[in-house]
Amino acid sequence: MNWTVNLLLMLFLLATAVVAITLKDLLAAVVVFSAYSLMMAMLWTQLRAPDLALTEAAVGAGVTTVLFIIVVYRTVRREDR
Amino acid sequence: MAEVVRNVLVAALCCSGIVFFLGGTVGLLRCPDLYARLHPSTKCDTLGACSVILALIILSGFSMVVLKLLAVTFFLMLSSAVCGHAIGRSAFKSGVVPWHKPGVEPLPPMEVEEP
Amino acid sequence: MKRLLVLVALAVIGVTLLYGIGKMPPMDSRASPDKTHVVPRYLGHGEEEAGAKNIITGVILNYRGYDTMGEVSVIFSALCAVIAILDREKKGRSRSGVDASRVRTSLIVTTVVRFSLPVVMLFAVYTMLHGEPSPGGGFQGGAIVGASIILFTIVFGLAVSTKRIPPGARVPMESVNMLGFLSMGFIGLAFGVQFLTYILPGLGVAAAETVRKLMLDVIELGIGIGGGIIFISIVFSMIREDRYELQQDVP
Question: I need a labelling partner for C227 at 20 to 30 A (CA). Which of B26, B76, B107, C33 fits?
């Protein structure tokens, strides 16, 4: 049971990682990256590392997303290529 | 008997949660624009996740964990609904035009009174 | 051609790494070095040696104290870089920034944030102070504090936020995490033992234990408050739009 949950989380993590680096719209990439952080936090709790999960959820999904969104807002939103 | 009732309740809540999740996902994929998509995707969090958590509460019986789960449910409902509201409002304010049928005149933008 | 080179290089590195992994003991085996040396020491003697029930806190603050100090200084230097680039205060530029958002926040959002922010803060303080017996700790709590104040700033605007947290209170606190760590380290030096030693000589056993707990708490609080303030400062200096620049854009 635990094994399947971990596997699903892993697959979703990989999918979000690939999507985050392939998207051309940087704002969407930031949102996907925040989903990646959330998946990572859940995986940390599954691996019995609640300290890391707390850090990942607060910093990765919270603060970093806001910082990235501010940067996207202050610069150009789309990657030109 | 109590066992049966409990299991039935848990199954019903879980199934309704899954139905809401399914509907939310399908709506997210099928709806035409942002405002229409917000509607099913907030249902996902409030009704879907909350009924699954309620099922977990009934399944686990009363303990300290139940209080935590209730707090999680409460904040989930609050934050998801408010997020939907904030996204829709800011999209409307920044000029995202709602979808309309081709050939039909779109509604003119409303002037909302600021409180 | 370049792609081919990259592929070959990646293949070589990957095969080498996979070969190395193959030579390692399997993941759960009892023969792997961390199971034979590190884990028994930490789990067996961690509480008495490091002085924290949560072994992770003990490892972070005591066994790997230098490492944590390095991480803290990394966060601090990140703030220094942001300030150096975005140039906090210069003559000729107005200090009070203009809000990035032109849209007024709705009543519903402000009410809910007003209601839920104290709860978030309470959880953050709980995480910060309970890092010793349960999961959590200074940095986690500080990150939650930072995130909640950033939420407040986004919802209510920079002007309200700087009124609540004036720069005179925020700026001196930015270096609290480094200062806490260094001062606790130098206390050890002053007593004639190594840097970052928490058990001081010349005290009784019980007194030394209490002093160690206090020092660990000071470091935790310093990391928490300093980290949170650093997050807030970075976001503030990024959100701010200088009036000077805006005026230059207008012909």
Answer: B76
Question: Which chain A residue shows the shortest CA-CA distance from C139?
Answer: A55
pLDDT at residue number C95: 47
Return d(Cα B72, Cα B91) in angstroms, integer: 28
C-alpha distance from C87 to closest chain B C-alpha (Å): 30
DSSP C241: B
Q: Judge contact between B52 and B13, C-beta under 8 A.
A: yes
What pTM did the predictor assign?
Answer: 0.81
Which one, of C48, C128, C90, lies nearest residue C243 by Cα? C90
pLDDT value for C161: 85
pLDDT, residue C133, reads 76
In tens digits, what is the pLDDT along chain A, a chain of 81 residues?
578 888 999 999 999 999 999 998 899 999 999 999 999 999 999 888 888 898 898 888 888 998 898 888 878 777 765
Helix intervals (H) in chain C: 2-23, 33, 39-50, 55-58, 65-86, 107-129, 138-156, 158-164, 167-173, 176-190, 205-239, 243-249
Distance separating alpha carbons of residues C137 and C131, to the nearest angstrom:
4
Interface check for B70 against chain C (CB to CB < 8 A): the answer is no
Q: Do chains A and B touch (3 or more CB pairs under 8 A)?
A: no
Contacts of B99 (CB under 8 A, 6+ apart): B32, B33, B35, B36
**CA–CA separation, C234 and C83 (whole Å):** 8
d(CA C175, CA C75): 10
CB atoms C103 and B85 under 8 Å: no
Query: Is residue A79 a part of any domain in this protein?
Result: no
Q: Which residue has the tokens 């040696």?
A: C49
Does C122 touch chain B if contact means CB atoms closer than 8 Å?
Answer: no
Residue C38: both structure tokens together: 């590190």
**Residue spans per domain, chain B:** 2-93
| Residues of chain C found within 8 Å of residue B82, distances taken between Cβ atoms | 108-109, 112
To the nearest 10 degrees (0 to 180), the angle between helices B2-30 and B34-43 is 170
A62 touches chain C (CB under 8 A): yes
Residue B13 phi/psi, 5-degree rounding, is: -65, -40
Nearest of B109, B85, B111 to residue B97 by alpha carbon:
B109
User: Is it the case that residue C248 has pLDDT exceeding 50?
Assistant: no
CA distances to B35, B49, C4, C162 from B45, rounded to whole Å, are 16, 5, 47, 34
Structure tokens at B12: 């019903």
Chain A residues within an 8 Å CB radius of C231 = 63
Cβ within 8 Å, pair A51-C56: yes
Inside any domain, residue A81: no
Closest CA to B49 of B17, B26, B71: B17
